[in-house]
Design goal:
With about 200 residues, this protein is an alpha/beta fold. The protein has a single domain, classed as P-loop containing nucleotide triphosphate hydrolases (Rossmann fold), CATH 3.40.50.300. The chain contains eight helices and five strands, in the order βαβααβααβααβα. A five-stranded parallel beta sheet has the order 2-3-1-4-5, with helices on both faces. The longest helix is centred in the N-terminal third of the chain and has 26 residues, at about 45-70.
Length: about 200
């Protein structure tokens, strides 16, 4: 079984991935942040490094999906390959932070990769307002994230909402992070666990 958690920067994907993997006994697969050679450079100069960063993430996540399917294990994945292609890359292109030439090259590569993969069995979307995202980004204190622009987060949120509204590839669970604190409140985490069980097992 392949479970994936999607959401904007600072929405709590890694925290929820950790908690659900421990509860259900699923193997966690995390986004490559700490060893990503482009991330810090990207936040310093988005226009220069946007294409490099997106290609790195595309390659990394494609490899993750191949390993997930080959392993035969139940896996929960922190962020999906679809978010790169439908949200981050087109957002960079629209903001003139990625050239049309690079964007078209990127989408051509993604379309090829997408023909070889299957969507997750359940997609969990962490929906959060920009103030909530900013608060959680500040709390985790990554130096390179201090330069994230508010208009960048806002634009990403808009694209996330549009993508989720049109998502038909499989089962979908939307979690409102503004009103659920699954990190500090065990009862809120319990509510999410119950909803995940309902989606996977058909319980109401």
């Amino acid at each position: 079984m392949h479970i994936a958690i999607s959401g904007n920067i600072g929405s709590g994907k890694t925290s929820l991935t950790n908690r659900l993997s421990k509860h259900f006994g699923w193997e966690p697969q995390f986004e490559d942040v700490d060893t990503n050679p482009y991330l810090s450079s990207f936040y310093d100069d988005m226009q220069r490094w946007s294409f490099n960063l997106q290609i790195y993430f595309l390659n990394s996540r494609f490899r993750q999906i191949v390993k997930i399917r080959e392993s035969g294990k139940s896996v929960i994945q922190d962020r999906t390959i679809y978010e790169d292609a439908y949200i981050f890359a087109p957002n960079l292109h629209e903001m003139n932070l990625m050239t049309t030439r690079d964007f078209e090259n990127y989408r051509s590569l993604f379309d090829l990769m997408a023909s070889f993969i299957q969507p997750p069995d359940l997609l969990i979307y962490l929906k959060a307002s920009v103030p909530t995202l900013v608060k959680q980004i500040q709390l985790r204190g990554r130096d390179y994230e201090e330069a994230i622009r508010l208009d960048y987060l806002k634009s990403l949120n808009k694209r996330y909402d549009e993508w989720i509204q049109s998502y038909k590839q499989g089962k979908l669970l939307v979690v409102d992070v503004d009103n659920l604190d699954f990190i500090e409140k065990p009862e809120d985490l319990g509510e999410i666990i119950d909803r995940v069980n309902a989606e996977l097992n058909g319980l109401f």
